[in-house]
Amino acid sequence: GDSVTQMEGPVTLSEEAFLTINCTYTATGYPSLFWYVQYPGEGLQLLLKATKADDKGSNKGFEATYRKETTSFHLEKGSVQVSDSAVYFCALSARGSQGNLIFGKGTKLSVKP
Amino acid sequence: GAGVSQSPSNKVTEKGKDVELRCDPISGHTALYWYRQSLGQGLEFLIYFQGNSAPDKSGLPSDRFSAERTGGSVSTLTIQRTQQEDSAVYLCASSRSGGGEIYEQYFGPGTRLTVT
């Protein structure tokens, strides 16, 4: 079945460091891909999405590019801030599905000042 | 506007008891999803409602789990004869529509269920 694999955490970075969180997927056809974020004490929020190959999703300085050839959707940010500390989830929605999301396990990011 | 709300925020129950969890979606959202977030399994899809259509129950882990959605709005997830492995955070999400077009899902704060 469809699945999402993302890098294990936790990830600890210093402020202004470069961030990469790897995400790969297995799916039939071409799914839509998402990154969700869960800040401490808050609910899940959509961070960015891409619905077709080579699309780049971006928001709040974060970017991810839908790579069909490597079935990947890695999350990147050039300079992280303390306020980016959160748990990040990669997810897919299969083409033709009801829109239900299949999530990776999540990666906890801690940014130190 | 108001977001997705869920109640209760926390629920502690004894093994074998039944529990009901409630979700109020964003007004006008026709699609509603239930997910479960647990340490061992991560985030899992449970059930999907689209308007007044029959739900997609493909993610429900056992027949102890059921859900309904009244009037295409409020939804209740019921777990009968709770087991310790049911302990998790139950999340509800709604979106403008499901299937076909991909719309953002808005998540509620969740109900943390602890089965003792």
* Termini Cα gap of chain A: 41 Å
Number of strands of chain A: 12
Number of helices of chain A: 0
Protein chain pair with the most extensive contact, residues per chain: A-B, 22 and 26 residues
What labels describe this entry?
heterodimer; A: 113 residues; mainly beta; B: 116 residues; 10 strands; globular
Architecture overview:
- Chain A is mostly beta strands.
- Helices cover 0% and strands 50% of the residues of chain A.
- In chain A, a hairpin with a 5-residue loop joins β5 (32-38) and β6 (44-50).
- Chain A starts with a strand and ends with a strand.
- In chain B, the strands form two sheets. In chain B, strands 2, 4, 5, 8, 9 and 10 form a six-stranded mixed beta sheet that branches. Chain B has a four-stranded antiparallel beta sheet with strand order 1-3-7-6, with no helix packed on it.
- Chain A binds chain B through residues 32, 42-46, 49, 51, 89, 91, 93, 96-106, and chain B through 4, 31, 33, 35, 42-45, 48, 50, 56, 59, 91, 93, 95, 97-99, 102-105, 107-110.
Topology readout:
The complex is a heterodimer of chains A (113) and B (116).
Chain A: E1 3-6, E2 11-14, E3 19-21, E4 23-26, E5 32-38, E6 44-50, E7 56-59, E8 62-65, E9 75-77, E10 86-93, E11 102-103, E12 107-112
Parallel strand pairs in A: 2-12
Antiparallel strand pairs in A: 1-4, 3-9, 5-6, 5-10, 7-8, 8-9, 10-11, 10-12
Chain B: E1 5-7, E2 10-13, E3 19-24, E4 31-38, E5 42-50, E6 65-69, E7 75-79, E8 88-95, E9 106-107, E10 111-115
